What we know:
Radius of gyration: 60 Å
Strand order of the largest sheet: 3-4-7-6-5-16
Strand content: 25-35%
Shape: elongated
Distance between the termini: 162 Å
CATH architecture of the domain at 196-297 and 318-330: Beta Barrel
Helix content: 10-25%
Amino acid sequence: MRFPPPIVAAACLLAAGAAGAQQPGGGLGNLPPPGAQFAPPPRPGPQMVLPRDKPPPLGGAFDPRGPAPQTPGFAAPPQGFRPPVPMAALPRDKPPPLGAAGPGTVPRPGPGAAIAGIQPRPPIERQAPRQVSSGTGFVVAPRQIMTNQHVAEGCTSMRARLHTGQEIAASLIASDRERDLALLRTDADPGPALSFRRAAEVRRGENVVTYGFPLAGLLSSGPTLTTGDVSALAGIGDNARQIQISAPVQQGNSGGPLLDLRGQVVGVIVSKLNAQRVAQATGDIPQNVNFAVKHTEAVDFMREHGVQPQLDDPPAGQRTAAEIGDLAHASTVFLRCLR
């Protein structure tokens, strides 16, 4: 008997095994047999339910005493969580206004009380106005006084001392820096008005008289009279508004009347030449070089501001300087500038 080779025998064995697997009623590999029903997949085991509650509000805390009782229908809170401790309600009332003492509060100290050992600042006392300068003025119309602009400049108030010694208030109503003239109004009657020369011309060499209050507090407290002449018909630098006179004047004469020997106003004293500066510039000391505003400028200034000057024709004959002083005395006032 002959035996087949080994390779042929192995192939026959494999073919027989495959035919047996495909026989009716046999299984088709991993597939279930016909008519077999699929088994449902296994269900997963129980999982942890995530909490659906919102995180606890600020102030919540974990209580070591254990979990809080569970509310039906809600997931159980984490282990050890307790509801937040109720917080104190904030006050809804407005705070009392500053300075007002509410119930249970300590009243604030008053304005004059000391706070924490600090003494209150004493109230500021307002100082009374004091005299800063002085000058001269003269009556030109009822309750109207003329003086220089530089005499009234910067004064918060002015006082006029009359020839009787009475002192009255005076207020500035008009001023002219170019002419250096000013008008003051008084509530009381300051005295009779002086008259101005009607004629416009003033001649060189005319005798003139000044009346005023120079160097108040140093010289006599009363008025001072000086005499002189008209030296020139113009002021410094040919100033046509002024005339030059030789009658001595000092600080404090400013605003006083310049009168002729008939008692009429022909000018308003305004300034004197600065002898020290001239001496430094020229090496010579000038003497009796003083100036007055022309009476025509004063009349125009008064009319421009609604004040009617008193104009008279020159009376017959001349008077003495003493008589002119008596005439001017009742109409010339001492002015104090207060600030």
